Backbone:
């Protein structure tokens, strides 16, 4: 009997993209998609164990106090589910060890990177090795950007994809490796999944506004060594249909937006990984 995969979208405390993210999961094929608040997870009403795919959506967790997603990272690292007294971070560790999928978008990527879920060099999950900090422009950036995928990357989510066009909406999206060797190793191990480019199919750029935040090396998204945990600053859930595109009345576009392919790749993996 074929496995029917399920998805969970973690919400609450300032996230604001959970509904469109959940919709993307359903469009991709996930028949069961639950929006779970952090408080339901803390209480123990829900556990991550029952899901195959976890999405950490965009928003402004805790008002970005202490820096983007830092308060939520501390909460997840040091809190337990009240009903079971199990540390929440053990649920995340178990999720990873069972070869399930995680996707972090914008604020969710910020949370992932501060939890240490990515880049997880040498399998060192829960050890922060990079950060996402204030944009070089000193302002909130809300624009569409071109992205180039790394065809050599193990990333499950970008399989078969090359040039993408997604919106960014962030004030702290600048990727910075905490040590130079981190960036070098990410390149060598093909864990850099997405790069900002000036044009479709162009080369990685540091030029503003194509690189909207000044990210080192033009990095827009990275994965863990397995390719099953992926974080990116642009919003694939914001381009699910051609009418989401800023020039949909002026260009010939397919009905399906490019962002749906990210979620469909997740569904295809989740349907077969067991």
Residues:
């Amino acid at each position: 009997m074929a496995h029917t995969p399920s998805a969970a979208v973690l919400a609450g405390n300032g996230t604001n993209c959970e509904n469109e993210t959940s919709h993307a999961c359903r469009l991709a094929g996930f028949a069961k998609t639950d929006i779970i608040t952090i408080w339901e997870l803390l209480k123990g009403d829900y556990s991550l164990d029952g899901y195959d795919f976890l999405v950490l959506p965009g928003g402004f967790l805790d008002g970005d106090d202490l820096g983007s997603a830092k308060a939520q990272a501390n909460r997840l690292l040091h809190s337990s589910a009240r009903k079971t007294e199990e540390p929440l971070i053990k649920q995340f560790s178990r999720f990873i060890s069972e070869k399930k999928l995680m996707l972090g978008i914008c604020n969710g990527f910020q949370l992932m990177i501060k939890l240490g879920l990515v880049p997880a060099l040498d399998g060192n999950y829960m050890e922060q090795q990079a950060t996402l900090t204030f944009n070089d422009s000193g302002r909130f950036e809300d624009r569409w950007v071109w992205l180039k995928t790394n065809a050599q990357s193990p990333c499950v989510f970008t399989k078969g994809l090359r040039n993408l066009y997604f919106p960014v909406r962030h004030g702290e999206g600048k990727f910075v490796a905490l040590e130079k060797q981190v960036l070098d190793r990410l390149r060598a191990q093909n864990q850099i999944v997405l790069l900002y480019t000036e044009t479709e199919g162009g080369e990685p750029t540091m030029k503003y506004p194509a690189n909207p935040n000044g990210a080192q090396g033009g990095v827009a998204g990275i994965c863990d060594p397995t390719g099953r945990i992926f974080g990116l600053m642009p919003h694939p859930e914001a381009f699910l249909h051609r009418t989401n595109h800023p020039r949909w009345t002026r260009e010939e576009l397919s009905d399906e937006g490019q962002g749906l392919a990210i979620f469909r790749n997740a569904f295809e993996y989740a349907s077969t990984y067991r």
Residues 259-272 form the longest helix (14 residues). The chain is about 25% helix and 20% strand. The radius of gyration is 17 Å.
